[in-house]
Amino acid sequence: MEVKNKIILALDVNTMESAMKIAGKVSDYINTIKIGYPLALAEGLESITQIKEEFDCNVIADFKVADIPETNSKIADLTFNAGADAVIVHGFVGNDSVEACLESAEDHGKDVFLLTEMSHPGASRFLKGVSEDIAAMGVEMGIKNYVAPATKLDRLEKIRNIVGNDSFIISPGVGAQGGDAAKTLRFADAVIVGRSIYLAEDPENVVKSIIDGIKL
Ligand code: C5P
């Protein structure tokens, strides 16, 4: 996926109105938007379709899909049919569940991002212990797209070493959760930024300063 300026906007707002407004303010700099449960549950899968139509951007659906294979298939099909270019899938559920999403992605000509480890402190208790194994499973399955945390650079580096330099890693946790974009991009291909953009008085300015910080 070609991510302009290496920044993905996490559009975790509750209304289509504010989603459109914020995306509009940064659309000169951002071509990839992550839509997760807040917007999709508030406004439906139609939110994916509308954002894609309005901004002609990449849409990554962050549904952290984590069910049995048969249900995962249905979730992935619905997500891709709504227009998403990629879906984020949990790895801890095992290879058969992930495979179901990969098959759906292949049928639709879309992508799967495998979530290895999460960015919040609580992830240390369970996910940290298995995240390297999840990344290794992804490699065995031929997956090329991964999610790994910007808040734990040592973990991000470990996951990069496992998935290799030809894989594409997107990394959440920059800004509000404390991660730094430039440092994260030493190991990741793009950063995911939510609150520090969509809660800002001037989202465009925040995006510009992230871009400047990356160039330093
Ligand atoms: O607001 P903030 O910049 O912290 O947003 C981070 C985004 O990345 C949120 O949408 C969150 O759900 C998502 N995310 C994460 N950690 C992961 C995967 C996704 O924080 N491992």
From TrEMBL:
Pathway: Pyrimidine metabolism; UMP biosynthesis via de novo pathway; UMP from orotate: step 2/2
Active site as annotated: D62, K64, D67
Pfam families referenced in this protein's UniProt entry, alphabetically: OMPdecase
A biological process term (GO) from this entry: 'de novo' UMP biosynthetic process
Keyword line: Decarboxylase, Lyase, Pyrimidine biosynthesis
Entry-linked InterPro entries: Aldolase_TIM, OMPdecase, OMPdecase_arc, OMPdecase_AS, OMPdeCOase_dom, RibuloseP-bd_barrel
GO cellular component: cytosol
Annotated catalysed reactions: orotidine 5'-phosphate + H(+) = UMP + CO2
Residues the entry annotates as binding substrate: 12, 34, 62-71, 119, 172-182, 194-195
EC number(s) reported in the record: 4.1.1.23
GO terms assigned for molecular function: orotidine-5'-phosphate decarboxylase activity
Orotidine 5'-phosphate decarboxylase domain location: 6-210
Highest rank taxon of the organism: Archaea
Reported function: Catalyzes the decarboxylation of orotidine 5'-monophosphate (OMP) to uridine 5'-monophosphate (UMP).
Oligomer status and interactors: Homodimer.
Similarity remark: Belongs to the OMP decarboxylase family. Type 1 subfamily.
NCBIfam families given in the database record: PRK13813.1, pyrF
Identification of the protein by name: Orotidine 5'-phosphate decarboxylase
Native source species: Methanobacterium paludis (strain DSM 25820 / JCM 18151 / SWAN1)
Gene: pyrF
